[in-house]
Amino acid sequence: xxxxxxxxxxxxxxxxxxxxxxxxxxxxxxxxxxxxxxxxxxxxxxxxxxxxxxxxxxxxxxxxxxxxxxxxxxxxxxxxxxxxxxxxxxxxxxxxxxxxxxxxxxxxxxxxxxxxxxxxxxxxxxxxxxxxxxxxxxxxxxxxxxxxxxxxxxxxxxxxxxxxxxxxxxxxxxxxxxxxxxxxxxxxxxxxxxxxxxxxxxxxxxxxxxxxxxxxxxxxxxxxxxxxxxxxxxxxxxxxxxxxxxxxxxxxx
Amino acid sequence: xxxxxxxxxxxxxxxxxxxxxxxxxxxxxxxxxxxxxxxxxxxxxxxxxxxxxxxxxxxxxxxxxxxxxxxxxxxxxxxxxxxxxxxxxxxxxxxxxxxxxxxxxxxxxxxxxxxxxxxxxxxxxxxxxxxxxxxxxxxxxxxxxxxxxxxxxxxxxxxxxxxxxxxxxxxxxxxxxxxxxxxxxx
Lengths: 253, 186
Description:
The structure holds 2 protein chains of 2 kinds. Chain A is mainly alpha-helical. Chain A has helices spanning 10-13, 16-32, 36-52, 56-80, 96-122, 125-134, 139-168, 177-182, 184-197, 199-208, 227-251, and strands at residues 86-89, 92-95. In chain A, a hairpin with a 2-residue loop joins β1 and β2 (92-95). In chain A, α2 (16-32) packs antiparallel against α5, α3 packs parallel to α5 (96-122) and α4 (56-80) packs antiparallel against α5 (96-122). By secondary structure, chain B is mainly alpha-helical. In chain B, α4 runs antiparallel to α5 and α6 (128-138) packs antiparallel against α7 (143-172). Chains A and B meet through α2, α4, α5, α7 and α8 of A and α1, α3, α6 and α7 of B.
């Protein structure tokens, strides 16, 4: 599950900026914390965040799938190949500091992934665009975030069509790495040149919709913000600042 | 940013993400996830290219669900600035200059990405680069050396090919299309 899941949880009803601020705080906090216990408390906070959005099971499952390869590589690179001292666990000897570092790094990735999957699942893209418009964010920024996602499937479809067309003309995708590299040109060139040829058409279409003017747009149904939510956003920002101050103070003590 | 820049940024982001799909279909051991950033830097300039790099990084995270790699957005900014400077010097006009420019870009981006990979992720980022790191570590290289060597090896190859591809793209532009981008004439 990656993407918005409709629901009526407190996070679904919250202002999108609040949800994103909480996920952002998890991301920044994860890089500020350096002890296994601290990082795993953050993972618990990310799980509580997902539970508040009513998406704990789905988010945790996807987060686990996404972070599993990282956990495996961390175990090999730090647990098995880490520095002395070592401890014997069954048939293998593991590095004690390596396992501790793997727990911090793996917990960090898990907390970030879980936090942002929850934010993606509970903050509707439509409400986010409305909130940005109501907040006076320039059209160019909302356009870039919202519209690029719509152009991607079109480009992917065109890439598939070009791939099939070139294969019909005898393009071979297999062989040595050099042969496969040579196949890149006949695939990438028509895709990019075709897209560049359409730029002026798209500029005209946007101009016709009044996108060139700097006038402030009116949001039709902006999400409601409130004083407690604003206070919550400032509080998490303050917590992140405190976490970094603590980190640097501990480093130079 | 003009409307044309805006449309080109959107196009650059799509190129960054879709070329990666083509590379995966060809089973090539590279990423080519900055072709759009380099192309827009050459066509328009650094500001739009930085926007391409940053938006690509965020959208890649949205699509894959893995937001851990957001700190690597810094590398995209460095690539955008370097590519704009290289384009201004006319290095993408010929393959003979584009490939060395790509090697320089690879050195710079590896110098940025290796410390991020080492300090923030302990050298573990998903993809071929971590496999190379693990092999070097198994051969006895210290972790820092293994991470840096893997980053330099993959980035040099990746960026040299990306710059060569952009050079071919720019030279393949029909004159009527190239005339619409005054930065190309500089």
